[in-house]
Structures
1.
Amino acid sequence: MTERPRIRNIADLAKIAGVSPGTVSRALSGAGLISQKTRERIQALAREHEFRPNIMARNLRIQRTGAIGVLIPLGHETGQHISDPFFITMLGLLADALTERGYDLVLSRVIPTDDDWLDRYADSGRVDGIIVIGQSDQSAVLDRVAARYRPLVVWGGHSRGQVHCSVGSDNIAGGDIATSHLIERGCKRIAFFGDPTPLEIAQRLEGCRNALARADMPDALSTFPAHLAAGVSDSGIADYLEAADELPDGIVAASDVIAMSALRALAELGRAVPGQVKVIGYDGLALGEHTVPRLTTVKQDLNTGARNLVDLLLRRIAGEDTSSVVMMPELVVRLST
Amino acid sequence: MTERPRIRNIADLAKIAGVSPGTVSRALSGAGLISQKTRERIQALAREHEFRPNIMARNLRIQRTGAIGVLIPLGHETGQHISDPFFITMLGLLADALTERGYDLVLSRVIPTDDDWLDRYADSGRVDGIIVIGQSDQSAVLDRVAARYRPLVVWGGHSRGQVHCSVGSDNIAGGDIATSHLIERGCKRIAFFGDPTPLEIAQRLEGCRNALARADMPDALSTFPAHLAAGVSDSGIADYLEAADELPDGIVAASDVIAMSALRALAELGRAVPGQVKVIGYDGLALGEHTVPRLTTVKQDLNTGARNLVDLLLRRIAGEDTSSVVMMPELVVRLST
DNA sequence: ACACCTATCGCAATCGATTGCAATTGCAAG
DNA sequence: CTTGCAATTGCAATCGATTGCGATAGGTGT
């Protein structure tokens, strides 16, 4: 029993209902001034005709898009894929948190070739706010844009004096925790695997150094700039381990993915983990449960992290001023140390 | 030297430039009928004032959003996260392919509680087209909506007589390839790990049976409905392997993630891979390179898959009629078999 | 029965860019 | 110098929903 004249807009529905477009709008949208009776009548009519008001028109009038942009800058390493498990995990959590609050999530990977990728996005008018996952090496850009564009929050490390609002875990503490754990386990020669170009990684390395200094063994550290991307630096890790005249007995990996590569390289070299070499990861991703052996790691609580990001962003959209959040990472001991 | 009167819309710019709003529109957007001179003059003016036309207004007038919805139905298992590496990989590739074609990607996870989740999304007017990743157990819904909503493509298996347009690999052939490989390697007792509720998995299992039948060993198969989600069925896999009176000597995993769980469970049981048990995965994800031992797998070419999805969708948006695409999976032999 | 108040509803402007059609300008040919 | 044609530009309607303000209805109190 579909009526011939298809209802394309609010005006058509108004004609059928015998009221004005304005009334239909009030009936369908807000809790405007309208009688209970007509509201229900019109809503029923809309349901019957499968009519839904045009969102683009609404957006134009309301001056908001109902969407949040999630940007993943891949600055420091060209080969990196979004496929990094860390991003994916975070993305899923953000998707849930945003959906709950009634926002869409529009995803963009950006390779910052020029300096105004973020400006362009902020001014594009496509989104009501922006979440950037990972500072990469773009701290300067983030600070500059944050100074003029309010609805912007960033996942990543916090550094003194930064302008932008960030949510992240204490990477220095995390690096410290990881390293201290290895020291407690008796490691004497510790290697840090990770490219310290991104701020977060540099901070983890700093924490690592702190722990060693505190234990009075500042010279026990060697470093290898393994890429974060899965697969990119695998051969590099293997080569490094093979070439080392003295194999480290403890490896602090800058991410779980790097730790995984290290585990495999060690297995192929015939080194026992944790017998000869202990390995600790960083992130606390689910995949750490599936490695052989299961990966000890420093866990960031990404769930509350994602919720914080969304919460802060929405408050900023509402005009509030918010300050950064630093969460404490947590040691998860499994079988690799 | 920013002018005091901020340029908020095309009319303001027009006033400054001394032309009509229409002319400004033509200068900034399409290659409409306009002289080279004025176009450049206006574009320069726009740049100088950092003016960008309002996208929502444009969308309303043009009647398109410039966005594609990517939906991930999580029907068959409640606990599943978007964090599944397969989704992430696909998502990244789609993000790239869509960006290249000038579209935004809006991401939604859906838990199909009711039957019209897809209808609601299609009619929401938020996107110009929809890509659904994975049929889950929602084939009926997909077919019903596809019958009336054209711009819809689905990643997943193809079944005879389906209404919706899909892109995917030949899961039956894939299951066959995996199983045949194990048979060639001399396996006599083969176990299939995976919950066959989703169509894709059921097809892989079917291929598995085909290969066994062809080899005249139809009774060599046992099955265990491991969940796709990382971590969910780990203990299950371990229990199953422990309880089995006769350990299989070949495992066909329905995904790389499941294979990873199996590898770890076997390691903890002290079984040698590939010595005592051979394991083959499915998907060809990057993480298969990092397992111990490196995972033999059936690889789906997700890159061209993603490009196909986008290509078909855009052609459907343009009004074309497209038929489904089935790609051939490929055996990648590494060290686990 | 009359005035008054309020809950609803209609009117019309508005958001900002696009585009068909008409008008104008410019140029060249006759 | 005039006419004709084509290249540009201006005008105004349009996309569809929202909302402030004014109008009308209904109901209440005296």
2.
Amino acid sequence: MSDVARLAGVSIKTVSRVVNAEPGVHADTAKRVLAAIDRLGFRRNLGALNLRRGSSTGTIGLVLEDVGNPFYSGLTRAVEEVARGFGRQVLTGSSDEDPDRERELALEFCARRVDGLIVVPAGLRHGYLMPEITSGMPVVFVDRPPGDVLADTVLVDNIEGAAAAVAHLAAHGHRRIAFLGDAPDIFTAAERLRGFREGCAKAGIPYDAELVAMGPHTGPSVRATLDRVLAGRSAATAVLTGNNRITVHVLRAVAGGTGRPALVGFDDFELADLLDPPVSVVSLQPGTLGRAAAELLFARLNGDTSPPRRLMLPVHLVPRGSGEVEPS
Amino acid sequence: MSDVARLAGVSIKTVSRVVNAEPGVHADTAKRVLAAIDRLGFRRNLGALNLRRGSSTGTIGLVLEDVGNPFYSGLTRAVEEVARGFGRQVLTGSSDEDPDRERELALEFCARRVDGLIVVPAGLRHGYLMPEITSGMPVVFVDRPPGDVLADTVLVDNIEGAAAAVAHLAAHGHRRIAFLGDAPDIFTAAERLRGFREGCAKAGIPYDAELVAMGPHTGPSVRATLDRVLAGRSAATAVLTGNNRITVHVLRAVAGGTGRPALVGFDDFELADLLDPPVSVVSLQPGTLGRAAAELLFARLNGDTSPPRRLMLPVHLVPRGSGEVEPS
DNA sequence: CGGCATCATGACAACGTTGTCCAACCGGCG
DNA sequence: CGCCGGTTGGACAACGTTGTCATGATGCCG
């Protein structure tokens, strides 16, 4: 900026005035300054500006599990969209389901003085965020609740979703339903298992631990599990999967085989409707989740000081055919 | 920091020393300072640090078309991964194929003094980045070349890919091949069209403009185009699609119908192998693209001053069945 | 006991920007 | 001609941090 001032033959402060379009600068002077700015390719340093103004850095942080997963990239896009509406940039980071990495990312964002934070929790402890929460930085947790702090949270109705899936399968005559869920220490996985059990109970199906396999899952592990639960005289006739990745593993495992079980997947995914048979799912829109979280965050940034809220977004069953297969 | 100093009864400078683990602080003093830091929830302000040090902000900017698109989210993930290895955070923004938005995002990132920039160009003019390029900020363009500046660029071999797809279809007896590409002012779309023409020429197939429809495409427009090119006595027997979204539109349009044409799609996508028939594609890994770009960027940041490079990554045809359908 | 090296700590400037305040200049008016 | 108000430009401090240098205390040696 001092270079610009020198070239234009004015003081630094005058350049600042021009940059900020403040009144009180002669038109000719302003023109000279603008020319100098253009010639030198000057860009005002936002870091210094934020330091000086001390108010807002114009950024928010988003910590999620994996941007590469379509579910989270849809969420990211929605957050970005809302942030743009409020003139903010988004810093993203993937935790890979590692609590340490989540913490590291969140604290890094805090050190960068983001205006707010949206977190898909990987761990169960979030006390490390107490200083920021106490000092008024808004934090919103999405998809899973925080471990040991009280803060805004946006969830989906996992229990209801899983129960609805079971009801759907039961309505089509299934009595032996397998559940392949994610690692049980992941909140959503535990909730979906709970919904699965409730659904079974409501349908009068006795809970059979033999038919439940919680993750983490890989392609081979899913294949092995299916070999087990789909075999024998008490074989499962239907499968409920706990998230989009497991659903894909199952589809791949049963592809080409005969006697494919009925299937309902948690999370919708692209092309589910074009498979044969089309895959019925419990649908939750990542965009809706992201938008809700971001809107909550910006409401806080705009002065909403009501007590922490817990939003529970509805899910809905999308029957497409794979869940309507009758038991053989 | 001054609060910490006051609480610990030391000077600000001593706190700074402790925070930076500098030698020359008495163990007892350090302990007092650490206790104060913990009690106050102090976090060192990275913005101020960057201002003071003036060197690196520890961030890079990534401007792409749409994080929500699996292709770009895969790319994003790869960039994030590499950046993490070099201790950098990633700022992302979606341009939605709007040159103004691309410019706005890129300049915003520059104003935040990112250490480097990775851009999937939306427009054809990038002269606005000249000041930064001249001043040594590394900029890498991915997927498409920049318009009017000389800079590192990572592309894929679109021409070869499209030509290979045509050769594949021709080898299976197709002589009437339709091409549905993106808007012709998008570099990749133009290149793929060129590859399509070259492939046709090489296979001795006369180029028929009637069978080519360039975007932008929507579901209905794709449907209408297919109705046209697949009808009549000179109907196309095969279709080549110019990107993953168009491929999905085509799949949806032909789903349920009879007499489905042979199909090869540009860009691989999840579940392509599980459709019926499985979809043959020209595969280009977004992760490979992102990694190459990020590695190039960090090579520059680490002092590589060789002339701008242009990387051309290979693509490969993945035959899965949909391209092997014989013409009826 | 004086001198000197060593250690622990602190004062100050500077990074790039802007808010606050003051100075210089202009024209017009009494 | 002198004064006043308005218009334009500049000096300075401050945001939070660290690099440079100085200061004071301590201990050791001759």
